[in-house]
Fold:
Amino acid sequence: MTAATEIRNNKPDATIAILSQEPVCFYSRVLLSNYLEGSVKKEKLILRDEAWFREKKINLFLAEAAKSLDAEAHKVVTASGRELIYKKLLIATGVRPRVLPVAGGDLPNVFNLWDLSDAENIEDEISRIKKLPRRRQTVAVIGGGFICQSLVKIFVANELETHLLMRGKYYWSKFVGEPAGALITKKLLDNGVKLHEEVRTKEIVREKDGTLVIKTESNEEIRAAMVIVGVGTLPNTAWLEGSGIQLDNGIKVNEYMETNLADVYAAGDAANFYDVILEDCHRKGNWVNASRQGEVSATNMCGDKKVFNEITSFSVNIFGLNFVFLGEYNRAMADEAVVRDKGDKIREYYFKGERMIGATLINAPEDRPLIEKAIKDKIKLSKSEQLSLSEANKPLEESKIYGAK
Structure:
């Protein structure tokens, strides 16, 4: 939608068409958890209604999924057989949730929270579960995805017994070190969440009364009236196979959001883009990245040559713990992860060689502008300078990252 708006602003007479496999008009998936928690009304989810598209003279095709791409003919064919010829094409097909690869992973009352229909189904299930006998008012969340913590908070707020199953030693063990993990664990336990660490789901079975039983490889059994799965995502690229477009953990694009095919661009969660700041390719899906990449793509589709030059960043709040993730926040990608632990305020700095490539800030949002600048300016720190950041009693102002010369 951002791209279509940008094109219309630059090319008032251009013909613009949008294909969407969704049956409803454009809405914010980011706000689905807010809708479930009751802070956002359903009508506020809608970002643009059909009248807006008519006013902007944008042809909108709902419930119309792309099926194939013929790059030589500059043609997209949809699942219904519709053929659209393009001069410039932007692919923003996003991602889909990974399916839990176990028997029973597709049973009724096993959900992902991905689209509006999922949110509506979960909302209905919460209402149903709250009418059950108290001992059966139980839900389980499987996985360490970012959406999982949102749903855990929603279930706790609805006074449902909530179980959280994870493969790691603690929640988000892939993203944060043990001090931060301990903070998360304490917060979850303090809010009544029942934690199941280092477990793998073997199967899910359904009992006669509708109760779901999660059976783990360690022979543990967790009963729940509803199960939520959040075990990652996969890019929606199957329809592009055989088109000649380069695929590698998504659609490969350069810093201009151009694919290897002439006149074809990609943006958003499905784009594996070249990051000019980190000088590497990766797929970092979030709303801000998708919007900015759409804007850059649209500008370049109109004949300009603009670079996507943004630091990936987003924030999450877990029962009062404020997390800010910046740059390459997957600590496994770092040569060195330096942790500065001051109790309820933790900073994690990630380095590759002498360069800082990312950081995670817990209850330290004031550091965000300085960290972003340090990453963007490609400031170099020696090994000793990196390790000195862990010294809790040493002033941060003495580090180059915080402005020291």
About this structure: The chain has three domains: 2-97+233-301, 110-229, 313-402. The mean pLDDT is 95. Residues 100 and 229 are 7 Å apart (CA to CA). Residues 287-301 form the longest helix (15 residues).
